[in-house]
Amino acid sequence: MENAFTLIIGIILLSLGFLHMYWGFFGIKHPEKVLPRPKDQEQVALPGKTATFLVGSVLLLFALLFIAKLFNLIVADWLVYAHIFIGLLFLARAVGDFRHIGFFKTIKDTPFAKMDNRYYSPLCLLVAILIAISLQ
């Protein structure tokens, strides 16, 4: 069962990494749904290509760490700590900054906030839980 969870985590992280790479190459079609913005601001400030590619690269690296675990490509003590760190990052993203992102955000009526409540924060929490289970 641990391998199934590790595979699911790897697939989710690969998908998110490739999505960010796609955004880096082709742009974001509806930025108001994927980027938080202050309530009084009309337009969403788009991150640069470098930042988007960096996030995509980090997500792909995270995916590779789980795939390496799945196929025993890397057998090292630090891999467990890397998985714990990644899980804590996703848990922190799910909890949020208490303003724009996460379950405890205060700005709740923007298009991003609605998508965050419905998809992004639950996915981050799911990834954190799956990582915790896979470490057992």
From TrEMBL:
Q: Which UniProt keywords apply?
A: Membrane, Transmembrane, Transmembrane helix
Sorted alphabetically, which InterPro entries does this protein's record hold? DUF3995
Q: Which residues cross the membrane?
A: 6-29, 50-72, 78-96, 117-135
Q: Name one Pfam family in it.
A: DUF3995
Q: Mind telling me what this protein is named? A: DUF3995 domain-containing protein
